[in-house]
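Today's session is about reading a structure prediction critically. Students often jump straight to the picture, but the first step is always the sequence itself: look for stretches that repeat, for charged clusters, for runs of hydrophobic residues. Only then move on to the predicted structure, which in these notes is written as discrete structure tokens rather than atom positions. Here is the chain we will use throughout the hour.
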Amino acid sequence: QVRLVESGGGLVQAGGSLRLSCAASGRPSSTYVMAWFRQAPGKERESVAVLWWSGGNTNYADSVKGRFTISRDNAKNTLYLQMNSLKPEDTAVYYCALRDVRDSEYKYWGQGTQVTVSS
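Below is the predicted structure for this chain, in token form.
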């Protein structure tokens, strides 16, 4: 069973930075994809950044390109999201998720961590 635990959320002023972490245990396979999603109040959950673990390829939502960076530490089985130049519209609960590269939907989710950006 895969378990994902996020940390690093908090309150920050606009223009500030935060780094989220997602520690993964019990990897389901050797080829998988991890991602960060977010959900703001009254809005649908959206994908923020995606990383293909074996090759390191990444993909970002247009709204965060140039400001957010997704990365990994293989030795620690940890996924990161470095968030710079934060805006009030980045306020949301951020979730990390994992799926096998052959699956279309994410099977494993963390509990979420709140990010609040004040103006």
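Discussion point for the tutorial: The first strand starts at residue 3 and ends at 7.
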